[in-house]
């Protein structure tokens, strides 16, 4: 594939052609990135000690001629919660939506590089995108339950797969609602409209629907941004409860939330991965001063 030219990219002999050693002279990484220079991400060694569920390799994306992601290489550990943080417009939601190929629906999008889900390329020719999306449960910023009953919302993935055994469907509904910490609140209302629930309950219905399909990875795109603090706390508790049973990749703009719910954290800036490692280190002992500045609220 011929790749579009990245906006802000530099030709040979320009600053982008300088060796990375320029950073040793005190040049700020974020300023260098803003000029279009290539900066290697700092990835902590603990990441490589984990079994990956998702491997992102030199992945780039363009909206028309504008490049939004730049050579992202990232391993998402199996059975863990990984948070992606960064300022608005840094590409974190774009990257998340590449995992289930939702960006394919946008005209003019082009990609380069690869992503592998449990070792299988999701961008290889002939990949069944519908099947892929069954393997990558997605929960969006705003709750989006379907205009149908709570029960039908939760078991929707089974019904579109053709499951007709009522015992299995009922069991999955209860199991998924329990997994979403919602069964005790709604078990007597399963045939009421999901739209009658509170915002926080609707979001947990969406999570129940996502996990009913037993996805390889659960994708959460700022799942608490539209919720009040009490509902946010319940969803955060749920994320931690699901850890281990599911591999979770969550985008959040909330630093405190990332530090509370995740095992690993990736910091992005202007479409680049800057630093990636255990959440405890990213927030207390980051390798880069730029990461420290972001997580402590000095910019962003």
Protein described:
With 300 residues, the protein is an alpha/beta fold. The protein is built from eleven helices and eleven strands. The chain has helices at residues 29-34, 92-99, 129-135, 150-160, 166-179, 183-186, 199-212, 229-242, 255-261, 279-284, 289-295; strands spanning 42-43, 52-63, 66-77, 81-85, 109-117, 120-121, 136-139, 217-221, 248-251, 264-269, 272-278. The protein has a seven-stranded mixed sheet, with helices on both faces. It has a four-stranded antiparallel sheet with strand order 3-2-5-6, with helices on one face. The longest helix is centred in the middle third of the chain and has 14 residues, at 166-179. The model is unreliable at 1-26 (pLDDT under 50).
Layout of helices and strands:
Layout: H1 29-34, E1 42-43, E2 52-63, E3 66-77, E4 81-85, H2 92-99, E5 109-117, E6 120-121, H3 129-135, E7 136-139, H4 150-160, H5 166-179, H6 183-186, H7 199-212, E8 217-221, H8 229-242, E9 248-251, H9 255-261, E10 264-269, E11 272-278, H10 279-284, H11 289-295
Parallel strand pairs: 1-11, 4-9, 4-10, 7-8, 8-9
Antiparallel strand pairs: 2-3, 2-5, 5-6, 10-11
Helix segment tally: 11
Order of helices and strands: HEEEEHEEHEHHHHEHEHEEHH
Shape: globular
- Could you tell me the number of beta strands? 11
Helical content stands at 25-40%
Class from secondary-structure proportions: alpha/beta
């Amino acid at each position: 594939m011929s790749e579009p030219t990245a906006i802000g990219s530099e030709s040979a002999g320009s600053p982008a052609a300088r060796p990375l050693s320029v950073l040793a002279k005190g040049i700020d990484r974020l300023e260098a990135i803003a000029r279009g220079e290539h900066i290697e991400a700092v990835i902590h060694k603990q990441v490589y000690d984990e079994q990956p569920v998702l491997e992102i390799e030199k992945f780039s994306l363009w909206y028309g001629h504008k490049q939004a992601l730049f050579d992202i290489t990232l391993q998402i550990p199996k059975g863990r919660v990984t948070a992606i943080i960064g300022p608005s417009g840094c590409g974190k939601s774009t990257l998340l939506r590449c995992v289930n190929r939702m960006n394919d629906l946008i005209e003019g999008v082009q990609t380069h590089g690869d992503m592998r889900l449990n070792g299988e390329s999701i961008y290889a020719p002939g990949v069944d995108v519908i099947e892929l999306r069954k393997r990558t449960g997605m929960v969006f910023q705003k709750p989006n339950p379907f205009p149908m009953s709570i029960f039908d919302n939760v078991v929707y993935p089974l019904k579109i797969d053709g499951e007709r055994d009522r015992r299995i469907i009922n069991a999955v509904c209860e199991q998924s609602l329990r997994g979403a910490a919602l069964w005790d609140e709604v078990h007597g209302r399963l045939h009421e409209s999901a739209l009658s629930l509170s915002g926080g309950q609707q979001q947990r219905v969406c999570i129940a629907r996502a996990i009913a399909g037993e996805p390889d990875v659960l994708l959460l795109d700022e799942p608490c941004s539209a919720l009040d603090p009490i509902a946010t706390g319940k969803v955060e508790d749920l994320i931690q409860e699901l850890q281990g049973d599911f591999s979770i990749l969550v985008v959040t703009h909330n630093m405190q939330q990332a530090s509370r719910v995740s095992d690993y954290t990736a910091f992005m800036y202007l479409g680049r991965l800057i630093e990636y490692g255990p959440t405890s280190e990213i927030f207390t002992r980051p390798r880069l001063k730029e990461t420290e500045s972001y997580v402590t609220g000095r910019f962003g």
